[in-house]
Structure formats: C-alpha cells, structure tokens
C-alpha cells in the first residue's frame, strides 16, 4: 500500500443497524502518514489557534459540551433580575441562546435561520436529527411555545439533555 493510503472501515455505533448513520467510519492509516499528519497538525494549530472563536468548544483541547452548557447557564443566571424567557439551543456542537421579550420570538427564530444559512454557505451539514431545543423559563405559568423548524424538520423540545 502507498504511504498516503487509508482504508476506511465502517464500525457500527449500536447493535441494531437501520441505516448508514448507524455506522462510524474509522480510518486505518500507515505509521509514516500518521507521523506526517501530526507534524502538519502541530504547524497548523500554531497558525490557526489565534483565529479561532473563543466560544468554540468542539474539537479543541480541554473544551467540551459541558463548557457550552455552563456558559449558557451563566448567561441565563446573569440576567435573572430582568424579565424575559431564555432559551438554550443546541444544534450539534453549536449553542444559540435567545432572549424572548413580550412573547416576540422573532430575534431567536432569525438567529436559528442565520445559523442554518451559515452552515449551508460553509458547506457544513446541520444534523437536525441530533438537534434539540431546551426552554428554560422561570415564570410560574409557562406558556406553550410553537415548535422550532430548521430546514423543514421539526426540532424536538426536551426538558434536559
């Protein structure tokens, strides 16, 4: 085999396979190529590190979804003295936090639309099957919120994640 050749092996994510999304691709790569990749990766990290958004939690060392959740909770708790409803939105590894005032959800919905458009412009697939909406509302009588739709897919609302 060539040094820059990799073999992709599909590994099942769960016992019962229902479609291609139930597989995780694993690449088997030569030792020479893996060593070269590490050298190039170290070089690229030095160049791109300062350019990354400080609120990016995915694919960064010592960062996780827990950091995004804690930051979201911090923003919510920071504004408890103000009126309004805070929403925490997870779309895979992206968090969108929206404040709804006087029942007007337009800014929040527009933020979600902009996220979907940005993903499309940057050749990223927004996986709506793994996207959830969590509504945090500290009012005594929580109103019913209309379902969130992203790219013609209704996003489930969850109490926790």
UniProtKB/TrEMBL annotation:
Species name: Hemibagrus guttatus
This protein's name: Reverse transcriptase domain-containing protein
PANTHER family: ENDO_EXONUCLEASE_PHOSPHATASE DOMAIN-CONTAINING PROTEIN, REVERSE TRANSCRIPTASE DOMAIN-CONTAINING PROTEIN
Domain of life: Eukaryota
């Amino acid at each position: 085999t060539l040094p820059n050749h990799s073999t992709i092996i599909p590994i099942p994510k769960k016992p019962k396979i229902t479609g291609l999304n139930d597989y995780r691709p694993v690449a088997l790569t030569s030792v020479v190529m893996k060593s070269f990749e590490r050298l190039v990766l170290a070089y690229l990290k030095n160049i791109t590190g300062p350019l990354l958004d400080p609120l990016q939690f995915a694919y960064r060392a010592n960062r996780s979804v827990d950091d995004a959740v804690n930051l979201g909770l911090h923003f919510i708790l920071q504004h408890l003295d103000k009126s309004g409803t805070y929403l925490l939105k997870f779309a895979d590894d992206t968090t969108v936090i929206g404040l709804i005032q006087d029942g007007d959800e337009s800014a929040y919905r527009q933020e979600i639309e902009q996220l979907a458009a940005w993903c499309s412009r940057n050749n990223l697939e927004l996986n709506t099957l793994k996207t959830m909406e969590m509504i945090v509302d500290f009012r005594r009588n929580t109103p019913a919120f209309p379902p969130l739709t992203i790219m013609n897919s209704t996003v489930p609302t969850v109490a926790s994640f």
